[in-house]
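[step 3/7] fold_predict: job queued, chain A
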Amino acid sequence: MSVALTLQAAEGTVLPTAPVPGADAPAEAALIRRAQAGDDEAFAQLVEQHRRAVYRAAYAALGSMAEADDAAQETFVAVHRKLGGFRGEAAFRTWVLSIAWRKALDRRRSLRRWLRLSAAQDWRSDDEADPLERAASPAVSQEDQAATRELRLLLRRLILRLPRKHRDTLLLAASGEYSYEQIAAMLRVPTGTVKWRVSEARRLLKAKLTALGVRE
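[step 4/7] structure written:
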């Protein structure tokens, strides 16, 4: 497998365009107002619209489907509780994702839990490809698709050993779910820092792979 293809993670080409802060679509804005007024059906629609993005953010932090499900549920409980205080200073999706990331980090802060997950996580989603494979170029050849399981396992191990701030940022970006601006809001860092961390994570991985004899 080409190192360049493997590490072509989130250079910006696969990331969706960030919504303008405070500029939710009229239909969603109406749902938000209804949910704030106590309309449970409207809130359920908001949950459905953002469930996938919340789950994938939690999964990037936790690497466990069960833990990500629990974090997602906690997120929407918190969103429901705090909804009355949402004033639209940021896009609703960004606001929800920020809550999701904090909930995921709360779960990860237990050292025992994190060590257990790090040893056992499989980095698989129930309906998506391996996040590491999503880090590759969308235009992969049959030869790249036939890459060995050993190399994929090696990549998993190397990503797990990245500094946490680089690993988190790379996995969020490589998911293809979030713009750099949304990732910045989740991590509470400038957008430029997100871009630097992704670039640095890719550089570190490429250097490690090259040192192990995996070359283009």
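[step 5/7] annotate
The domain at 3-211 is CATH 1.10.1740.10 (Rna Polymerase Sigma Factor; Chain: A).
Residues 1-23, 125-129 have pLDDT under 50 and may be disordered.
exit 0
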